Amino acid sequence: MISTSFMTVGEATNQYLFPKKLMFENYFHVWTSSNFQRYTLNSLIISSIVVLGILFTSIPAAYSFARIDFPFKNAIFYFLIISLMIPEIIMLLPHLLIIRGEIIPLPFGPSWMNSLQGLTVPFMGNIFVIFLLRQYFKKIPKELWEAARMDGASHFYFLYKVVIPLSLPIIVTVSLFSFILAWNFFAWPLLILTKEDWYPVTVSIYGYIREVGPQFNLLMAACVISILPILTLYFFTQKLFLESISNFGLKQ
């Protein structure tokens, strides 16, 4: 993909392995045409909002399952885990009915079609993220909570001041997973968007295929640009990412 993105049309069509000359013009052409900058910004906004929403809902939920006793806690948690077996594509229909306002009344208008909230709100809860955070939170020594409770700390204070700072590696990891999940949105935007105002970069590449036709060098340049934000994010977070993975292998 990277090699083809630097080729001429002829080299890409004839399936050369390496370009004779690096055609940086391909990237300039893609970046300055077809509103690619705008669609990339849309994806950044959508992905960032989804990440913040997932963290906002998942961290308290995971802490509750890890540290707080309440009726049917284990049954509810196991039910959530079982629901992970439902294919995501099946959930698109109920999501669609909800954002069209056919199941519950919606704030900010009768429908969320063609809107930022329609793209983001249905994905602000993630059971897999709750599971990962819960497993990590359970590794935090109970003695810390006992000491904090003796000082009069509430669960909220303990979560904010102790648990979150100690859990930065896993929080960064689930943020990275969530960002990639939102960045790769394709079927959902195609389903709810009839206008181009909030097209993400994935949908724009789909349209770009029809625009440039068999110019595979430009298509590959567009694909490389679309994955650069993810690679950049991983580059800056890889230390915490690897730390969280290694910590899951430690005994509690």
From TrEMBL:
PROSITE patterns xrefs: ABC_TM1
One GO cellular component, as annotated: plasma membrane
Swiss-Prot/TrEMBL GO biological process terms: transmembrane transport
Localization per record: Cell membrane
InterPro entries per UniProt: MetI-like, MetI-like_sf
The entry's keywords: Cell membrane, Membrane, Transmembrane, Transmembrane helix, Transport
Domain ABC transmembrane type-1 intervals: 40-237
Membrane topology: Multi-pass membrane protein
Annotated protein name in UniProt: ABC transmembrane type-1 domain-containing protein
Segments traversing the membrane: 44-63, 75-99, 119-137, 158-186, 216-236
Gene3D superfamilies: MetI-like (1.10.3720.10)
Pfam families: BPD_transp_1 (PF00528)
